[in-house]
Design goal:
Blueprint (H helix, E strand, L loop, with lengths): L1 H35 L6 H9 L2 E3 H13 L3 H5 L3 E4 L6 E4 L1 H5 L25 H7 L7 E7 H12 L4 E6 L7 H7 L4 E8 L1
Parallel strand pairs: 1-2
Antiparallel strand pairs: 2-3, 4-6, 5-6
């Protein structure tokens, strides 16, 4: 009698496990058949929808315009996008900077003249000052400052004291040596223009 109870318990556990395995197997089989039949679109479309990849021109234009409006220099100048310009066309690689120079330029793409992109490393130094302080060189300073000093400068500007302009230029710096030496120490490359 104990032998029969023991056998029944083992059979029940085995049956439940087997049923779960069969159900998972059937679900996977159905998904595989649907994928092979193209129900989910081409493999390229499925891959791009899950893992990113190529963008349409409209997607790229929206991304570039957003980068411009938020003054995101890295996203505008350095981030590469795989763009397909026509249906079934080949992918072309562009940054927003190179896309704005493409002929014909995509419709609705902002030229974003507020973000200059440099091919050479940009440091927080006299060269950056020359490009940023055009016309106000005598009252304009560009340099690395501790983060608290930057916030103090902003507070003085908002009160209408000392500074006419305080601008964080850190995102423009792409010189690896300066990034390591200063950004990791909590410093900002700041442009200030005194009243």
């Amino acid at each position: 009698m104990d032998f029969k109870k023991e056998m029944n318990k083992k059979a029940q556990g085995f049956t439940a496990g087997t049923m779960i395995a069969w159900m998972i197997g059937i679900i996977l089989f159905v998904i595989l058949v649907l994928a092979a039949s193209g129900a989910f679109g081409s493999w390229e479309e499925v891959k791009n929808s899950f893992f990113g990849g190529s963008a349409t021109v409209d997607d790229a234009v929206n991304g570039c315009n957003l980068a411009c409006s938020t003054n995101d220099v890295n996203a505008f100048c350095d981030y590469s996008r795989q763009i397909i310009f026509e249906a079934k066309g080949k992918k072309e690689t562009y940054t927003c900077n190179t896309l704005r120079k493409r002929l014909p330029k995509p419709a609705n793409l902002d030229d974003c003249e507020a973000i200059p992109c440099y091919s050479q490393p940009v440091s927080c130094d006299e060269k950056l000052k020359a490009s940023e302080c055009d016309g106000v060189a005598t009252t304009c300073v560009v340099g690395w400052v501790p983060n608290q000093t930057y916030f103090d400068y902003q507070a003085l500007q908002s009160q209408g004291k000392v500074y006419k302009e305080v601008k964080d230029l850190t995102a423009r710096i792409n010189d690896p040596a300066q990034i390591t030496a200063n950004k990791n120490q909590g410093q900002f490359c700041v442009k200030t223009v005194t009243l």
